[in-house]
Design a protein that fits this description.
The complex is a heterotrimer of chains A (about 180), B (about 325) and C (about 170). Chain A has about 180 residues and is of the alpha+beta class. In chain A, about 20% of the residues lie in helices and about 15% in strands. Chain A has a domain at about 45-145: Alpha-Beta Plaits, CATH 3.30.70.3270. The longest helix of chain A has 20 residues, at about 1-20. Chain A starts with a helix and ends in a 25-residue tail after the last helix. Chain B has one domain (about 1-330). In chain B, helix 1 packs across helix 10 (about 235-260) and helix 10 (about 235-260) crosses helix 11 (about 275-295). The N and C termini of chain B lie far apart (about 50 Å). By secondary structure, chain C is mostly helical. Chain C has 2 domains: about 1-125, NADH-ubiquinone/plastoquinone oxidoreductase chain 6, subunit NuoJ (Four Helix Bundle (Hemerythrin (Met), subunit A), Up-down Bundle); about 125-160. In chain C, about 75% of the residues lie in helices and about 0% in strands. Classes of the chains: A alpha+beta (about 180), B mainly alpha (about 325), C mainly alpha (about 170). Chains in contact: A-B, B-C. At the B-C interface, helix 3, helix 4 and helix 5 of B face helix 2 and helix 3 of C.
């Protein structure tokens, strides 16, 4: 029986390779045909806006701290009404490893990954992206989240006017 | 005078035809191998250069020619430079005796479709295939690199061992056709190819030929996951290219040998002789590529044990039986 | 013509052997020996024994010299320390020998040694060669092969590794 198995084991592979010879290759011929990436593919990073159209980024530096290759840098600034924003925001994609840790660290969902992966270029400085190149006009993956409405700071709406908040108590009506 | 001129023209014509065909075939054999192997692994293989990758050999050639020709420090320069040439030349010289068709009528005279019909053609082929070791061994030695040296050593040991089995497998064929001339060997197979008449010799020869061509499953001399690239580790540019082309020329030589000795040469129904010869050689080449796509590499001790302990005794036995049969039949 | 060729070939063989004996590098020596063997093969061809010439190349140049090379590569431990000898014309002897051999081979192929006359009386066909080997001198050949077999068995016995006493008996 052992011999029969050996003989079969020698000749069966030939049949298998011959069968595979006539199968359709699974290769996707890249530049002509492009495979759509998975929805959660981690490609180029973008800065999104909240549903009201304002920048989501509050320049908290968490993404920059989480980045293992230190490719994110920014400068924080504050508007008169107290809303924080990044005066400049820079991602060096020649250094980025597309790990997505920055998007996980981002508390305001401002930094998000996209499915864009064709970043190769001969000019190295082209892949160092400034804020105006990173900022997009949409909300990205989450269309509802607005950090300032939930954080309860009176920037977007007066205090107490945000969802899930009760209006502040007027201490004058609260006297015994 | 006119007669001499005609003879020279015919010789040059045959030489040019054979050389051109064989070199083109070798170039496209590389492409075919890569394509077929790719399809067996559900890939496309090279399909960018030219129509469906048809110009890939040309692109490879240009790439190899434009590469720097490196000679390692401490290498034996002249041997290093000559070794690839030996490897290619021995393969090319083999085509001198291979008959690829029956005689044809040309300019009112009978022209045999073989460059030189030696009466010891089988031995000539055999001698060239045993000299082919020198290219590999000297290339490996002259590189002054340990991987190359190991590759060269393995190639020598392997080729000597399998040459013996090859010779023992050829012997019954020569005995049956009563001649060392390849044309006579082919003509003896007019009714029945030797593959049917000497099945055991055919199998031994097939395995020995595969070992001789240093291809998977016998590619110990260049086992890339042990020896980087074996004997041609240190080679670059066109010198590497010559080793590479030599390997594929060798594939065609061995395919032709198999065709002439066992598959009935140019005999076949309907089509003209040369066509049948080409079909058979290409079939053998496809089989080699198929084997490469299927079988894993042997271990070195398995390879040597198989050669010496299985093939050689089987070959001797086969020789004995054939001789006894021939004596009994008279 | 044939006589001239004979002396040229003989000179080449002698030169190759001398060079072989005086080389420092064993691999170079083997290569010169290969040249000598090729010269001998051509001599056989010239003398009307193409079969013998082919066997000479197959057996001596193709197998035995390769074995020599194999053993040299295997056992020479300071092969890597050896510096390749520098010198602009050190390829000259080997170049000359190979060129002369190739030229002689070409001339031999072009001319029929029988027709050239002189030293060659007849051409030894493979059939006649076989007859001589196994009919005429059959006994001598058998005895020789037996002696070689004894030598092989003896070498095998001497080279065997002894593992303790029970194995040695």
């Amino acid at each position: 029986m052992g011999l029969w198995k050996d003989i079969k084991g020698t000749f069966l592979p030939f049949w298998v390779t011959l069968r595979y010879l006539f199968r359709r290759p699974v290769t996707v011929c890249y530049p002509e045909r492009k495979q759509p990436p998975a929805p959660r593919y981690r490609g180029r990073l973008v800065l999104t806006r909240d549903p009201d159209g304002e920048e989501r980024c509050v320049a908290c530096y968490l993404c920059s701290a989480a980045c293992p290759v230190d490719c994110i840098s920014m400068q924080a600034a504050e508007r008169e009404d107290g809303r924080r924003y990044a005066a400049w925001f820079r991602i060096n994609f020649s250094r980025c490893i597309f790990c997505g840790l920055c998007t996980e660290a981002c508390p305001t969902l401002a930094l998000q990954t996209t499915a864009e992966y064709e970043l190769a270029t001969r000019e190295l400085l082209q892949v160092v992206c400034e804020k105006d190149e990173l900022l997009i006009d949409g909300c990205g993956k989450n269309t509802e989240y607005n950090f300032y409405r939930l954080a309860g700071i009176g920037v977007v709406a007066p205090r107490g006017g945000n969802p899930g908040e009760t209006p502040p108590e007027d201490i004058r009506t609260n006297m015994p | 005078m006119n007669d001499v001129l005609l003879t020279i023209i015919l010789i040059v014509l045959k030489l040019g035809l054979v050389l051109g065909t064989v070199l083109t075939m070798a170039a496209y054999m590389v492409l075919a191998e890569r394509k077929i192997l790719g399809r067996m692994q559900m890939r496309y293989g090279p399909n960018r250069v030219g129509w469906g990758g048809m110009l890939q050999p040309l692109a490879d050639l240009i790439k190899l020619l434009s590469k720097e020709d490196l000679i390692p420090e401490g290498a034996d320069r002249w041997i290093f430079m000559l070794a690839p040439a030996i490897s290619t030349a021995t393969a090319l010289l083999a085509f001198a005796v291979i008959p690829f068709g029956p005689s044809v009528q040309l300019f009112g005279r009978t022209v045999p479709l073989v460059i030189c019909d030696l009466d010891i053609g089988v031995l000539y082929l055999f001698a060239l295939s045993s000299l082919a070791v020198y290219g590999v061994a000297l290339g490996g030695w002259a590189s002054q690199s340990k991987y190359s040296l190991l590759g060269g050593l393995r190639a020598m040991a392997q080729m000597i061992s399998y040459e013996l089995a090859m010779g023992l497998a050829i012997a019954p064929v020569v005995m049956a056709s009563r001649s060392f001339s390849l044309t006579a060997v082919v003509e003896a197979q007019q009714t029945l190819p030797n593959m049917v008449r000497h099945p055991l010799a055919f199998l031994i020869f097939l395995v020995a030929v595969m070992a001789e061509s240093k291809r998977i499953p016998f590619d110990m001399p260049e086992a890339e996951n042990e020896l980087v690239a074996g004997y041609h580790t240190e080679y670059s540019g066109m010198r590497f290219g010559m080793f590479f082309v030599g390997e594929y020329l060798n594939l065609i030589v061995l395919g032709s040998m198999l065709t002439v000795l066992f598959l009935g040469g140019w005999y076949g129904p309907l089509l003209p002789g040369v066509c049948w010869f080409l079909i058979k050689v290409l079939g053998v080449a496809f089989f080699f590529i198929w084997v490469r796509g299927t079988l894993p590499r042997l271990r070195y001790d398995q390879l040597m044990a198989f050669g010496w302990k299985v093939l050689v005794p089987l070959g001797l036995l086969n020789l004995l039986i054939t001789a006894a049969w021939m004596i009994w039949r008279g | 013509m044939a006589t001239l060729l004979f002396y040229i070939l003989a000179a080449i063989v002698l030169m190759a052997v001398l060079l072989c004996l005086t080389r420092n590098n064993p691999v170079h020596a083997v290569l010169y020996l290969v040249h000598a063997l090729f010269g001998l093969a051509l001599l056989y061809f010239l003398l009307g024994a193409p079969m013998l010439a082919a066997w000479q190349v197959i057996l001596y140049a193709g197998a035995i010299m390769v074995l020599f090379l194999f053993v040299i590569m295997l056992i020479d431990p300071d092969l890597f320390e050896k510096k390749a000898s520098r010198g602009r014309f050190r390829w000259l002897p080997v170049g000359f020998l190979s060129g002369a051999l190739l030229a002689c081979g070409g001339v031999l192929i072009m001319m029929d040694p029988l027709a050239a006359g002189g030293i060659v009386r007849y051409r030894l066909s493979p059939r006649a060669f076989g007859r001589a080997l196994f009919d005429e001198y059959g006994l001598a050949v058998e005895i020789l092969s037996l002696i070689l077999l004894f030598a092989a068995v003896g070498a095998f016995h001497l080279g065997r590794r002894h593992k303790g006493k029970e194995d040695a008996s």
